[in-house]
């Protein structure tokens, strides 16, 4: 098994409160069988407080993004002060058809996911 340590995803909220794929579905053809998201950072680059949400959609075999349901949230409407970064070290285990979805109340919030892909 090959192990690759990498930046899994980097996004900025596209629109106020819109759901965005931070780590989309891994294609079997790309050779990834499992992924471990070790650290996720949330950075509010704005001059006022914002809110954000993080969820994991499990076994989703489509690239069409549907709104997360209650059980999928890791964080929901968490307040992040202006000019602040928050880090989560979780060890999120993901199968090829799982993905991480994020949203924020403003477009000044960015998300970064670091981890390992196992082929």
Task: Supply database-style keywords.
119 residues, Jelly Rolls, four-stranded antiparallel sheet, mainly beta, 0% helix, single chain
Description:
With 119 residues, this protein is mainly beta. It has a single domain (3-118), classed as Sandwich (Jelly Rolls). Helix content is 0%, strand content 57%. The protein is built from no helices and eight strands. The protein has strands at 3-12, 20-23, 34-44, 50-57, 73-80, 84-94, 99-104, 109-118. The strands form two sheets. It has a four-stranded antiparallel sheet with strand order 1-8-3-6, with no helix packed on it. A four-stranded antiparallel sheet has the order 2-7-4-5, with no helix packed on it.
Task: Report a brief summary of the structure.
With 119 residues, the protein is mainly β. The protein has strands spanning 3-12, 20-23, 34-44, 50-57, 73-80, 84-94, 99-104, 109-118.
Alpha-beta content class:
mainly beta
Give the CATH class. Mainly Beta
Q: How many E strands?
A: 8
Distance between the termini: 6 Å
Low-confidence stretches: none
Question: Per CATH, what is the topology?
Answer: Jelly Rolls
SSE run: EEEEEEEE
Shape: globular
* Radius of gyration using CA atoms only: 14 Å
Instruction: Tell me which CATH architecture applies here.
Output: Sandwich
Tell me about the largest β-sheet.
4 strands, antiparallel
The figure for the number of domains is 1
| Tally of individual helices | 0
Strand order of the largest sheet: 1-8-3-6
Q: Roughly what is the average pLDDT, rounded to an integer? A: 88
Assess the beta-strand content as a share of residues: over 45%
The share of residues in helices is under 10%
